[in-house]
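<context>
A single protein, sequence plus fold
<sample>
Here is the protein in question:
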Amino acid sequence: MDNNHHKPVTMKQIAEMAGVTRPVVSAVLNNNHDSSIKVSKEKREKILELARSLKYRPNFSAVQLTGKRDKSIGIIHGCYMTGIQSELARLLAIKLRVEDYQAYFVGITDPKHELDTINDFISRGMSGIITSYTLNHIRQEDYPIPITCFSEIHRNYDLIANLDEGIYTLTRHLQAHGHRKIAFVCARLTLNENKFHGYQRAMKEAGVTVPPEWLLELTWNARFADDIRKLIDSGVKAFVLNGDMMAGRFIQWLNGNGYRVPEDIAIVSCDGLEAADITRTPLTTVVHPVAALVDSAIRITMDKIEKNMFTRYPEPEKIPPRYRISRSCGCPAHKSNKLIFWEWFPITLESEGQNIKPVPPELEEKPVLLTSQEVLNIKPGGR
């Protein structure tokens, strides 16, 4: 077996294959446009393609010895920015700045783009990478740079929001309202398996066997209306939705088809977006712990950078969510908002704005967010 097969490719080797000198390769891979070395577009593209295909990685030992590691963090997220992703990006930028690090964001479009982005961050000498969304099975051990992952899709992460517990808790809450026939509605199951697991766990503990039709996926489902009506006609009077935006549209559909929420149909959801307050019926929802996720992601990243740690933590951290209880599940509506607008619209129920002009005390109102145990202690009465 060739012992050199797994050795990392060097700039010198890329230079030989591209038919240029090593300083030319260095200028291209370090993205040094101010260099006195001028490189044609064709040569630049050839060098970059060789570096990508051969998985070129900079010598981080040399970078450390020369003190050239850049105080910047690469942030990878999905190109479709949901409210949660937007708030994550906002807080990461602010809190990394406090740590004296610059944040660089890339929204990935496909698996190859993700791998190219990681290699690009490495080639630029960044100190670390934080990824909140991944399309590949990213193994920390494969890269000579600290990578903190809190994307739950491939179960190879350092920390996640414990949404399994979140949906489990709100399913139990629906059961406390007297519901036994409860359906789970999501976009696609493959993207919501942890939430579905929490729902299943709560149903199993209640001694309820979940038939296949109680799982309703809406992506590419043109017969969804018939599916919903069949569920309701069969006695399903409560639904767990995978997200607040979908829950709002679901309530709108129910209302338009003669069903009242919560009088006829009870709804709980997940995300804790500000949109949960502007649906026709205010939502009972799992509040994604965005601030705690960001704090933990930065702490883990700084720890990995300090220790030159290129492995995952043995036990990933699970950040517990909180909950906003309101009218959609059958509980009394939470206290109505006192403000229409002040300086900005918050993205999530846990967002706190840095207002230039303080909100008057008589108008100030913060949502009451409960822990899992506090929700489980609620006794809403039987049905």
Q: What stands out?
A: Residues 1-5 have pLDDT under 50 and may be disordered. The radius of gyration is 25 Å. The longest helix spans residues 290-307. DSSP finds twelve helices and twelve strands in the chain.
